[in-house]
Amino acid sequence: MSQATLAPPPAIPAFRRLAALAPFDARADIALRDAARRARRIPIRQELLSEGKPVMDPQILLSGWAARTRILPDGRRQIMGLLLPGDLIGHCYQPEPLATSTIVALTDLEICPAPSAEDFPSLSCAYGISHALDESFLLAQITRLGRMNAYERLADLFLELLERLSMAGLTSEGAFDHPLTQELVADVTGLTPVHVNRVVKTMRQDGEVLWATGYLVLTAPGALASRIGWAPFRVSLSMPQRQ
Amino acid sequence: MSQATLAPPPAIPAFRRLAALAPFDARADIALRDAARRARRIPIRQELLSEGKPVMDPQILLSGWAARTRILPDGRRQIMGLLLPGDLIGHCYQPEPLATSTIVALTDLEICPAPSAEDFPSLSCAYGISHALDESFLLAQITRLGRMNAYERLADLFLELLERLSMAGLTSEGAFDHPLTQELVADVTGLTPVHVNRVVKTMRQDGEVLWATGYLVLTAPGALASRIGWAPFRVSLSMPQRQ
DNA sequence: CGAAGCATTGACTGGGGTCAACTTATGTGG
DNA sequence: CCACATAAGTTGACCCCAGTCAATGCTTCG
């Protein structure tokens, strides 16, 4: 037996995502379950990281949504990206890291300390890929804001969310639960809440989305993706392709 | 002597930047000079990385400017960020990395292989900080595109360039050389070339900038910074503060 | 049941895009 | 060294996407 024992697909969505990025061995799986037992609850609206302040030890987001935000002196707010179950928080490669953005809980959260990559080498691969994906989300966000119109921005964002949530097994048939208000979507997409509302109205009329508070359905994700030229994220040859 | 010998301030701008991020020892300095001797020239407009293709071994940009770009199916182009002397190219933490954006030379470049952090531990700190700064530039870019008007976008970009170039010693008195066309600035800031031209005209009339092809002067960087709420980048407590 | 937050809609405005013409560099070959 | 070609910068006229302002419903939850 030269091959390390792989853990079975995890039941916890957050860990299912990590395993989808790069399989890890049974030892790492045990460490993760153990960490999950020491999970901490974070109430909605609480800040996990504050821009300019030291960064906490690396954590895994077990459940709930969070946002990386920056606020301009005059109050304008931009959300740099959303954090979903299975995402990493506070993984840095520089010494004494300072937070470059504020992370705020959009729902009540569960987070747990991330087993260190040194102790569990089979996790470092998943961590590295997760990190690279994070960067890739930022690039997608830049393209959205810089070169897409309002309709495309919303569609592109929804497709990203669908893709990311599906890695954790949190979607079914193009549908997923979410805690987004139209104001939050506006702060992600660089629009105003009023205009988000108008665009959502159009998307509904087009039959592209069903949006109810807390719940979003993309009726034809594939068609929408090809219409706006959206493509899945790919940051490593070794990352398993989705079907 | 418990302290490692620190190298004197490097003469090459690219290395001066790295040393400014985190001091390294004489051994690393020698390795860098040695790498510089094996520098490669890249002609203008050549691609260093291509989106979706495997990433080359880690390199240091010794001289010249490059851009991280993404092109939408219909030809719209967005520049995610600019690469300046001393910036790192192709440093990834995931296995078998694939490029998430295309990197194209805006001028003739010199690049050299980056001495590995394993062989020269005193460099890993500078690499880590450089990596964190890169992310921080992406966040700045997102805020620019999402929540700033055209005037602020240009001012913010110019201040970022001034700050970054000054770390390599490539500025004097708010002035620096650059290879930017108004079309390139437009692709960075998410505007059209025509509108960039109009905004530059206003900035000239305001006395904020002197822009000639190849050369940019910010007449009062400090005042401009406080007017638009710009702040220097800070990603590590251990990173030396600028004066 | 009241209050606060969120969603929705209309009327109007304006920043930035589009189109097109023209001027000014840059440069390349004869 | 000039002639021509091409790229880059400049300007005006006009338009439209998205912002602003404001009023009105609709939930949700204490």
TrEMBL record, chains A, B:
Gene3D superfamilies, per the entry: Jelly Rolls, Winged helix-like DNA-binding domain superfamily/Winged helix DNA-binding domain
Highest taxon, organism lineage: Bacteria
CDD domains: CAP_ED (cd00038)
GO molecular function, one term: DNA binding
SUPFAM superfamilies membership: cAMP-binding domain-like (SSF51206), Winged helix' DNA-binding domain (SSF46785)
HTH crp-type domain segment(s): 148-222
Alphabetical GO biological process terms: regulation of DNA-templated transcription
Record flagged with keyword Cell cycle: no
The keyword Membrane is assigned to this record: no
Keywords associated with the record: DNA-binding, Transcription, Transcription regulation
Stated name of the protein: CRP-like cAMP-binding protein
